[in-house]
Amino acid sequence: MVVDSSISYPVGNTPASGTSAGERKLMPTIAAEMDRRQQLYSLLMPVMNLYVPGLDKGKGLYFLFIKAETKTPSGLVARPVLTSYYKSHQFKTRPFDPYNVYTSPNETILCVDAFQSMYSQMLCGLIYREEVLRCGAVFASGLVRAIKFLQLNWQQLAQDIETGYLSPKIMDPEVRDCVSKILKPGQELARFIRKECCEGNWEGIIKRIWPNTKYLDVIVTGAMAQYIPILDYYSGNLPKCCTMYASSECYFGLNLTPMVKPSEVCYTIMPNMGYFEFIPHDQSAHDSATELLDLANLEVGKEYELVVTTYSGLCRYRVGDILQVKGFHNSAPQFKFVRRKNVLLSIDADKTDETELQTAVENASELLKEFNTKVVEYTSYGDTKTIPGHYVIYWELLVQDPANGPSNNVLDRCCLAMEESLNSVYRQSRVADNSIGPLEIRVVKNGTFEELMDYAISRGASINQYKVPRCVSFTPIMELLDSRVVSVHFSPASPHWTSERRF
Questions:
Q1: What are the transmembrane regions (predicted)?
Q2: Fewer CB within 10 Å, N or C, the chain?
C-alpha cells in the first residue's frame, strides 16, 4: 500500500488545498488504483481527436514533475498522487501510442530536482518545437510558470542548443544521458530563440516558438480561471482544454466536449472510478444528518456536494466540491464545477467564497485594461488586527508599458470596484454596520508569487500540484508577502448598499 501525501485535486478543477497553504493530507491508495487512473487517461486523446484531428502526427509539450518520497512512521511510502502515477509501471512502460508522444523523456519527468526537470523539459520542447501540436501542464499555473522559466533562462538554453552541450547545471546523470542523445548543435534554432526572446516581447510567445500548437491542455476552471488572461496573452488566445476531473481522493470523470469555453466546461462522471453519492447543497451546510443521493436520483440544474467511497479505503468522504448537474450522457450525470464549499474570507457576518473573490478581482482588473496592465496573481487574508477588520488583497501586476502604468488613484478605484462586486452582507457591514473597514490592495513586486511557490515547495509542496492559495493566514507567508509590497491602496469610498424592504 502507498499513501498519497497530496494536495487535494492535483488534476481536477478545485481551489486552494492543503499543501498550497502549508498543510499536508494523507490519502490511502493501492496498486490496483493505477489501472483505473490509466484507464481514464487512455480515454482523453480519443475524445480530443474527435475535435482536433491529426494529433498523432506530432508531439505534446507537457511540463510534468514528481516530488521526493517520504515514509510514514509505520514505513508506508508517502508521495503526491501524480508522483505515484509517473513512477508507476503503467506510466513508465506504457505502450507506444502515436497520440501520446511527449517531447519530454521519462527521465526528465522523473528527475526530483525541480530546476533540472524544468530546464531539461523546456530544452527538449525547444528542440522539437516544430513537432509540438499541444502544450500543457496539470494546472494553468504550471504552464505560466514554465513560460516565466523561459523568460529567465532563454540565454542559457540557446547556448546549449548552439553548442550542442548541456549546461553543467544539469547534474542528474540519467537526465544528462537522455537529453544528450537529443541535443545536437543547432545554430539556426539558437538564433531563432534569441531573436524571439531578446526584446522581451512575450505576447503570443507560445504560438511564435511552437507554431503548430493547436490548443493548451490545462485546467482553467475553479481557482485556475484567473490565469486565463495571462495564458491568452502568452498563447495568442489558443483554445484551453480542461480534459478531466480528478483528485487525490479519487479520479472522477472526463470532459466529453473539451473545446468549449472554460465557463462552459462540464465533466461526465465515470461510475467505475468509485462509488459516488451527493448531498443536496441546501443541506450540505448543516452538521446534522443529511440526505445522500446516488447518481440515478440527481436533478438537472441543482447543486450537490460530492461524497466518495473509493476502492482504496475512503468511506463516504466529503470532497468539499459543490457541483451543478448540467445534463446527462446516457445515464451518467454531467457536472459543472461551481466552487469549493469552504468560505475564504470572513470578518463579521460576511462570507466570501473563492468564486466571489475571483469575480471581484476580474471586475476590478477591468479598470487596468486601458493601461495595458493585468493582474497575474493574487491572494488575500482577513485582517482582524485593525478595528474594524478589513479584507487585504495582494496583487502582482504585469505592466506592459511602465511609462503608462495605472496611477495610485486608479488602484484606489480598483479597491472600490472589488467592494462593489462583493455580496450584500459584506456591503451592509461596510456601509450600515461599520463592522468592516475599507478594502485594501497591496501591490507586490514582480516575482513575489514565484517566491511564494518556492517557499511552499521547500515545505513539502509538489511543483506539479502547487496552486496559489487564495487566502493565507500562515505567518511566514504573510511576512514574505508584506516584505515585497511596493504600494498600498484603500477603497476611497463606501460601496453601494440599500436596505431591502420586506412585505
A1: none
A2: C
Read off the C-alpha cell for 58: 506530432
What's the grid cell of residue 90? 503503467
Distances (CA, A) of 401 to 66, 279, 414, 445, 450: 37, 49, 19, 16, 22
Distance CA 477, CA 461 (A): 14
What is the rounded CA–CA span in Å between residue 392 and residue 178? 47
Whole-number Cα distances in Å, 470 to 147, 380, 449, 498: 22, 6, 12, 29
Give the pLDDT score at 151.
93
Domain range summary for the chain, segments of one domain joined by +: 2-139+150-203+211-222, 275-309+312-340, 354-447+484-490
pLDDT digits (tens, 9 = 90+) for 402-423: 888 999 999 999 999 999 999 8
Grid cell 498543510 — which residue?
A: 23
The answer for 177, left when phi > 0, alpha when psi is -120 to 50, beta otherwise, is: alpha
Give burial (CB, 10 Å; 0-12/13-18/19+) of 419.
Answer: buried
Q: In the chain, what is the greatest distance between 2 CA atoms, to the nearest angstrom?
A: 80
Alpha helices for 128-217 (secondary structure H): 140-163, 173-182, 187-197, 205-209
CATH architecture of 354-447+484-490: 2-Layer Sandwich (3.30)
Q: Give me the residue label for grid cell 527521465.
A: 107
- Which residues of the chain are modeled with pLDDT < 50? 1, 5-23, 284, 500-503
